[in-house]
Amino acid sequence: MFNKDSLTRREVSQLRSQRWYAPETIRAFAHRQRTQQMGFAREEFMGKPVIGIINTWSDMSACHSHLRERAEAVKRGVWAAGGFPVELPALSMGEVMVKPTTMLYRNFLAMETEELLRQHPIDGVVLLGGCDKSTPALLMGALSMDIPTIFCPAGPMTTGKWHGQITGAGTHTKKFWDQLRLGSITPHDWIELEGAMTRSIGTCNTMGTASTMTSIADAMGFTLPGASSIPAADCRHPQMAAQCGHTIVDMVWYDHKPSRWLTKENFLNGIVAYMALGGSTNAAIHLIAMANRASIQLTLEDMENIARRVPVLANLFPSGRALMDDFFFAGGLMAQLKKVGRFLHRNARGVTNHTVEEWIKDADCYDDDIIRDLDNPIIPLSQGCALAVLRGNLCPDGAVMKSSAASPQLRHHTGPALVFDTHQELSDRIDDPELDVTKDTIIILRNAGPVGAPGMPEWGNLPIPKKLLQQGVTDMVRISDARMSGTHYGTCILHVAPESAVGGPLALVQTGDLIELNIDAGTLNMQVDEHELARRRSALKVTHKVFGRSWAALYQQHVTQANEGCDFDFLQSGSDIPEPPIF
Ligand code: FES
């Protein structure tokens, strides 16, 4: 599987772990002694690549509930290839359980990954994760350490079914919730759905953030080619995990670390996949953060340029009709990449040191309706794309939306703002029958960004007021500095930057102001004159909660804005940290 061409094999003495294990010192004695204490004989670890397995398993992360078993499969591969596997537990961020939002902790896991690798005698690492933020977090940490790294995606869950209908995680939850609010399904149906929608191990089975990020990691070359499409419950999934273990040992011997193969072209390939899959807007933040960790310049404009040329081709929820099981059986990511081959940098390489051209040349598509050709997109470019970038006096540093999920009649829309300062206020008032709102109103939520919330929760799919739902309104223009779940849809403008909490123009909007959205022109403006804006700016007061201690305080002090990746300013790039001294 690993291509050794043009690479030079290292000597044992060049392994990083040898600094811990090889010297004839009292410290190295203690390292060998403590390893033997766990039952490993000297010959089982001495002179072998030490492979860290960063495992984000926990009982609070349903999507990762199988990762203890997968870690065993990885170990099997490592042992078979002559390495020494060690499992390192790390923060588990189950998207649904973690409050207020996993995004608050993405940088935490990234830091933990980097520091776990730095502080231990690790030569190469297999990263086990997949639920939304885990993928970028694990990769950000490993990129900062720059040691041989392979990502083993958790794999999507099995298709959900209820009363004969296919149900996708996330996407359908929102749909059924709206139906429950309207009385078109019963409370009994709602309880039944709990057990029917997410019925196996694995990550969400739609093209939500999890599948978007694992597919991007795959297209960039961080996984075994095609690994992201393998369902978690399929027997080929543990086989893939074992193969990751085998491959990482070769990667260590040939020092195949990210800085040796990862270029901007890999990121651009990841973006091509992102657009073709109709992926989550969250990826726009994570890609920039990951690129910064590798000291690669990547901007919203890079994504915009590709989004304008690559339509949504994968017929997957929430853009289309199928789920990740169907995508796998239709040929998976490699088949989809082959169909967008003309946009790919095909000489780029990944963890196996094979080129993209080599990955995709034998890929077959078995269902042209699920994995579509460029001339038969699921959503034509004229109707939108996976990522539209907007600019204007409301979002000078950009805002994003999934324009393919917007309603055609709202693509160019002017309406009066209805502003909510907090999510609590929105929740309290949105279903009030007296709320002054029409289908033309533009609903705005602020103080929901990286600093304001803090952690930029997925609140951006702002609810439609109940009284409008009852009138048959299914979409409205909604604006926030929050993010939106990749499983959701609607005319939702997200990631407004700078956010309101740091004084961005969103903080200046007042209920009743006219806002103009023009998706085709890429603009978002409030029709308020400069003089009035200056007056409001001078009267601006801090309205978000400022934390004085805890992780939230550190986060608020150092997080960057959405267009910069929401990483911590002191972690973004450079690898000027020395190896730890061993005394
Ligand atoms: Fe974990 Fe969706 S909740 S992937």
Structural key phrases:
single chain, 583 residues, alpha/beta, six-stranded mixed β-sheet, four-stranded parallel β-sheet, 14 strands, 11% strand, binds FE2/S2 (inorganic) cluster, iron-sulfur, DiOHA_6PGluconate_deHydtase_CS, metal ion binding, ILV_EDD_C
Task: Describe this structure as you would to a colleague.
- By secondary structure, the chain is of the alpha/beta class.
- The chain is built from 21 helices and 14 strands.
- The protein has helices at 18-21, 26-37, 42-45, 67-80, 103-119, 134-145, 171-182, 187-196, 209-220, 236-253, 258-261, 264-277, 282-293, 300-307, 324-329, 332-339, 356-360, 423-429, 466-469, 530-538, 550-558, and strands at 50-55, 84-89, 124-129, 149-153, 160-162, 165-167, 388-390, 399-401, 412-420, 442-445, 478-480, 492-493, 514-518, 523-526.
- The strands form 4 sheets. The protein has a 6-stranded mixed beta sheet with strand order 12-11-10-9-13-14.
- Helix 5 (103-119) packs parallel to helix 6 (134-145) and helix 12 crosses helix 14 (300-307).
- The chain is globular.
- Bound molecules: FE2/S2 (inorganic) cluster.
- Residues 63, 95-96, 131-132, 169, 203-204, 208, 210 line the site of FE2/S2 (inorganic) cluster.
- FE2/S2 (inorganic) cluster (FES) binds at residues 63, 95-96, 131-132, 169, 203-204, 208, 210.
- InterPro entries: Dihydro-acid_dehy_C, DiOHA_6PGluconate_deHydtase_CS, ILV_EDD_C, ILV_EDD_N, IlvD/EDD_N, Sugar_Degrad_Dehydratases.
- Belongs to the IlvD/Edd family.
- Keywords: Iron, Iron-sulfur, Lyase, Metal-binding.
